[in-house]
């Protein structure tokens, strides 16, 4: 018997005003699973994911975290869900290391200083640990955001195009980190345009379009690499 879903959507309609951006979404992700979400630019992937985690209201349908309707204002939900979107959200006067320490302490990570050191090293930003956000390159800022997403415990990890602005070596490491998280029992949702990352991590794949459909991961990878219509 498969484990109960961590996050599930049923007939979820996502969009702006009264207009859905894509077909209704019914899907779920369980502990240890990686749900890859793919689709062309503007298909609605980010909108769907934002709706699934309660950052914007659904037009219709529902989304549940465990048994409860998603409520991103609930402290228990925020404690359990780590999200990395493409938003450069930093405190201008905190260094890279201080950002990570803030997140680690806020989420009760044991031995936060050591955890910060580990993540700085894992994301290759030790050399800029004491730099302010404005002193980081765009790729380093991206690494810092991802490190902040990974430094804390989570039952659900949501990554929106984590490959963005990463060099190939870091992209591969990102795949390793995602797999390791899932192996540890975390449910993961990854929106991606990178076939290699999808193939390396996803256990299931959802294509966002006018008709949302679940496809084999290899088919999703072919779709985003342009080798399949
Ligand atoms: N705040 C907003 N208000 C109104 N429409 C929006 C808003 N954000 C996005 N949209 C529209 O919703 C549609 C889906 O956008 P979304 O960002 O979800 O697509 P996406 O699949 O994530 O695209 P990409 O691959 O380019 O990141 C697009 O047509 C976009 O113009």
TrEMBL record:
It comes from the Bacteria. GO terms for molecular function: ATP binding. InterPro entries: AAA+_ATPase, ABC_transporter-like_ATP-bd, ABC_transporter-like_CS, ABC_Transporter_VariousFunc, P-loop_NTPase. Pfam families: ABC_tran (PF00005). Keywords: ATP-binding, Nucleotide-binding, Transport. Residues 7-225 form the ABC transporter domain. Gene3D superfamilies: P-loop containing nucleotide triphosphate hydrolases (3.40.50.300). This is ABC transporter ATP-binding protein. It comes from Tersicoccus solisilvae. The lineage of its organism: Bacteria, Bacillati, Actinomycetota, Actinomycetes, Micrococcales.
């Amino acid at each position: 018997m498969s484990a109960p879903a961590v996050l599930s959507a049923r007939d979820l309609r996502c969009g702006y005003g009264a207009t859905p951006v894509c077909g209704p979404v019914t899907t779920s992700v369980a502990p240890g699973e990686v749900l890859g979400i793919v689709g062309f630019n503007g298909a609605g992937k980010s909108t769907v994911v934002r709706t699934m985690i309660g950052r914007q209201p659904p037009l219709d349908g529902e989304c549940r975290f465990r048994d409860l309707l998603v409520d991103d204002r609930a402290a228990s939900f925020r404690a359990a869900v780590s999200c990395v979107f493409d938003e450069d959200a930093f405190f201008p006067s905190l260094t890279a290391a201080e950002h990570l320490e803030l997140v680690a302490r806020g989420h009760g990570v044991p031995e936060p200083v050591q955890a910060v050191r580990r993540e700085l090293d894992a994301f290759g930003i030790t050399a800029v640990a004491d730099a302010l956000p404005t002193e980081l390159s765009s790729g380093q800022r991206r690494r810092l955001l991802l490190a902040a997403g990974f430094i804390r415990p989570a039952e659900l990890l949501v990554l929106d195009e984590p490959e963005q602005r990463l060099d190939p070596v870091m992209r591969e490491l990102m795949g390793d980190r995602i797999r390791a998280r899932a192996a540890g029992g975390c449910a993961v949702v990854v929106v991606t345009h990178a076939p290699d990352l999808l193939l390396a991590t996803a256990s299931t794949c959802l294509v966002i379009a006018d008709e949302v459909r679940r496809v084999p991961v290899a088919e999703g990878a072919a779709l985003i690499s342009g080798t399949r219509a």
